[in-house]
């Protein structure tokens, strides 16, 4: 197991170690973990912010090392940002982002999908909201077919209404185990 | 700086996200993008519905060769033709058009079938309960009947063609309810009648020549009616006014009648104890109903001559109702004070009548004169002035 340090080197007193799904350890400054409601709650519950408490590594079972690296990059950049406050996001017609964010999220859609899952799991609202907005903006002006391609949605109409040709039905619900909509998905235990 | 919007492959599997995340992505979408995304599959439609996006009102206009579904909240129009449907996004100065084929319409569907299908999808997905129907001038009577058969639930119906069949009229009247707004421009057969003709929240008949005076005199708790072309004479208008002033029940909340050439309402007004209020080119008269019947809740009566129209409105004495069909009356302090002003004016009139008697004792006369002075002072506090013995609120 290797241990990677973020840009600023935290001292053992003010950091915790998290372990990605592929076994890689990351030393995280407690200041950075404040941006993740999941980690912040865990640190508070286990009193890891106290110097006299032994800190066991925290396993993050469904976050890969690549994703963790990316997330630490985000946390570092936003280290001194004020606490995130959700604005009314409904039906905003355009979103603008700082250059750093654009470059940071200039990644393929599948990586964006994984990063959004990780941001949701760790509950990092600024990252979560930013990815959602960017993904929403990526379908602006797209045709039906393009939207299906970008969002990986298969039509569930049995026959094309114009050609009568049978169309493959959307079976993703059975494939991914999401047969019913879960309004409050419970993340796996840390 | 706006984000780069190129498609990057492979895909972003929206439906594989936890619902909280999926909902957030959907809520971040531009409204027209959300609309098109909702229709890419039935499953996507169900998720969109759960994402709590709402459309308040759909306005559908039918013409002879197409239907237009106007989504005012979303800033776009959906146009349904015989062989194609188009979504027109109306934003900024640049309209963006999308074909809805083979998206949500049916291959061999008629315009009406496609319109019904699309509007039902929108209503279900975005939980829209209000549909306004506009039937354009070139729509033939037969098609009107089909439209009314297919779209029975609506909030407003505006019918613009010059003619209408009795079947269509009966269909409209049969579906009347107090949440509906009706505006019919067509000539209506003179012998037509229906018990529901005034049972709308707002019924506007551009041709009211078929409506008889008895129909109006027999109104009971009607919400609002506007009659444009009509054959009512001066004498009939006077009868209507006098009946309304003295009625023991509330005939209507508001009533608008176009007055034919030469008809005036001053003859009836001159006999009333009123105060007048001038607003721009209008003079509005306030008076009290000539009845104390407990069945008449609207005791404050407002009479207004507005261009060619006579506007009659009844107001409650206990509370001010701020709504009115034509928005001629806006909420104003005058309505808060109207009842008190009218009561003081009535008291003043009674004292003035008393003072006209020649056999009054001097002490009584002095007391009454003092009372009048007090009443006038009170009225002045409510911005009432007198010109030629007529009260005005300024």
From TrEMBL, chain A:
**Pfam families the record matches:** Skp1, Skp1_POZ
Q: SKP1 component POZ domain: from which residue to which, for each copy?
A: 15-79
Q: Could you tell me the Gene Ontology terms of the biological process aspect for this record?
A: ubiquitin-dependent protein catabolic process
Which Gene3D superfamilies does this chain map to? Potassium Channel Kv1.1, Chain A
The record's annotation in PANTHER family points to: SKP1 (PTHR11165)
Give the SMART domains listed for this entry: Skp1
Task: Give the UniProt keywords, A-Z.
Answer: Ubl conjugation pathway
The signal peptide stretch is: none
Residues covered by the SKP1 component dimerisation domain: 126-157
Family, per the entry? Answer: Belongs to the SKP1 family.
Record-linked InterPro entries = SKP1, SKP1-like, SKP1-like_dim_sf, SKP1/BTB/POZ_sf, Skp1_comp_dimer, Skp1_comp_POZ
Q: Where is the composition biased (Low complexity)?
A: 169-184
Q: What is this protein called?
A: Skp1-related protein
- Disordered: annotated span: 166-190
Automatic annotation (TrEMBL), chain B:
Q: Where is the F-box domain?
A: 11-44
- Highest taxon in the source lineage: Eukaryota
Q: What is this protein called?
A: F-box domain-containing protein
